[in-house]
Amino acid sequence: MKTYKHFETKRLILKPTSEEDAEFIFELVNTPKWLANIGDRNVKSIADAKAYIKDRMTTQLEKLGYGNYTLIRKLDNIKIGSCGLYDREGLEGIDIGFALLPVYENMGYGFESATKLIEVGNQEFNIKLISAITTKENKASQKLIEKLGLLYIKTVKISTDEEELLLYSLEY
């Protein structure tokens, strides 16, 4: 099995998400904010989480060398969230996304991890356009995206989703 790069920040280890993270991913994708802002991924069991990781995360990692990363706090080795670079159908550029367990929100971990992935995306993976999408209601996400240096471009609809999303981007 091929190994993929891990990245570190001052407080975090960013490890490519794997099936060993299934319990954590199951918890994360079923938090109220994930369901409201990202959407129901129909992950109703640990087995569903393993399949989700394999089908949605590992596939892109194998294809492009980057994808979803589990955020592990160095202080206590606890998995606190995820951050990733996603090749999303219907979206120009590579999408940066992030989610934290509620207890770890508003501590700077989203900014810290996303800043690192934007840096490695550009320097190691030669990504020239970083995009981000969020709902109109998700003010916390909008604030973080803007803090990361992405600029609002327009509203978009992705694939068959009826909801209009706000599109931001950062070009190198």
List the helices and strands and how they pair.
Elements: E1 7-8, E2 12-16, H1 22-29, H2 32-37, H3 46-64, E3 68-73, E4 78-86, E5 94-100, H4 109-123, E6 129-135, H5 139-147, E7 151-156, E8 165-171
Parallel strand pairs: 5-6
Antiparallel strand pairs: 1-2, 2-3, 3-4, 4-5, 6-8, 7-8
3D structure, described in words:
- With 172 residues, the chain is of the alpha+beta class.
- The protein has a single domain, classed as Gcn5-related N-acetyltransferase (GNAT) (Aminopeptidase, 3-Layer(aba) Sandwich), CATH 3.40.630.30.
- The protein contains five helices and eight strands; from the N terminus they run ββαααβββαβαββ.
- It has helices at residues 22-29, 32-37, 46-64, 109-123, 139-147; strands at 7-8, 12-16, 68-73, 78-86, 94-100, 129-135, 151-156, 165-171.
- The protein is globular, with a radius of gyration of 15 Å.
- It starts with 6 loop residues before the first strand and ends with a strand.
- 33% of the residues are buried.
- The model has no long low-confidence stretch (mean pLDDT 95).
Spans with pLDDT under 50 lasting ≥5 residues? Answer: none
CATH topology: Aminopeptidase
CATH architectural designation: 3-Layer(aba) Sandwich
Strand count, sense and closure of the main sheet?
Answer: 8 strands, mixed
Oligomer status: single chain
Compute the number of strand runs: 8
Strand % is: 25-35%
List the total number of helices. 5
Q: How far apart are the first and last residues' alpha carbons, in Å?
A: 33 Å
- Give the CATH H-level superfamily: Gcn5-related N-acetyltransferase (GNAT)
Topology as a string of helices (H) and strands (E): EEHHHEEEHEHEE
Q: What is the radius of gyration?
A: 15 Å
**Domains, number:** 1
Helix content: 25-40%
If strands are numbered along the chain, what order do they take across the biggest sheet? 1-2-3-4-5-6-8-7
Structural category is alpha+beta
For this structure, what is the CATH class?
A: Alpha Beta
Q: What overall form do the CA principal axes indicate?
A: globular
